Each structure stands twice: as C-alpha cells, then as structure tokens.
Amino acid sequence: MFDFMNIMNKVKEAQAKIKETQAKLVHLTAEGEAGAGMVKVIVNGNRKVVSIAMDDTLINPSDKEMLSDLTVAAINKAMEAIEVKIKEEMKSATEGMMPNIPGMDLGNMF
Fold it and tell me: What is the annotated role of this protein in its UniProt record (predicted)?
C-alpha cells in the first residue's frame, strides 16, 4: 500500500523543483544553423528566439526567398535542440523525487 502523505509530499517537492527549474530555463540556450552555418539562430529555454546571425553574402534582395528559407530552417533546428535540453533539465530536476509509478512520466509534461 502506498503511503499517501509521503506521495503528496513528493508531489509538492517535485512541483517546487519544477517551478525553480522553469525559472532557470531562460538561461538555457541552443543554436540551430542552416546553409552550412550561413544562418545561425539562438533560442532560449522559454522557446524564444534570442538572436539571428546571417552571413553577409546572403544579404541580397534577389535572394530574399532563400534567406527566408534558411532562417526558418535554422530556427526549427534550434527549437528542436532546445526541446532536448529542456527535457534533460526537467528530468534532472525531478529525478528520484517521485516513486516509479508505471505510466507516470513527468518528463513528458513539459
């Protein structure tokens, strides 16, 4: 039989740790690049674009569509990379706090 009060205390601890970790995510960053590094994008753990850097050779009005495509590709790569980092941070923050209950994966909550 589960110790209900112990589980509730663990849930409260996990919630506090999750909130603390979420506050730190703004400092977590990931980079994505496209066009062999011609476009680089950095995003933070709050899933916000922090910076976009473009090679000077791309800044040509006739290449506007290519520049747009490369920027989108770099942003998508950076977003994929930050998702991995966020899951790692959250897993690390809650590891060992909750009992191993089948089907209850806190890592997928974020």
Answer: Binds to DNA and alters its conformation. May be involved in regulation of gene expression, nucleoid organization and DNA protection.
Read off the pLDDT of residues 83-100 as tens digits, 9 standing for 90 and up.
999 988 888 877 776 555
Distance of CA 105 to the CA centre of its chain: 17
Residue 92: inside a domain, yes or no?
yes
Query: pTM score > 0.70 for this model?
Result: no
CA angle 107, 19, 105 (to 5 degrees): 15
The verdict on residue 21 lying in a domain is: no
Nearest to 21 by CA among 110, 108, 101: 110
Q: Does any domain span residue 102? A: no
- Residue 73 belongs to domain with CATH number: 3.30.1310.10
Q: How far is CA 16 from the centre of its chain?
A: 19
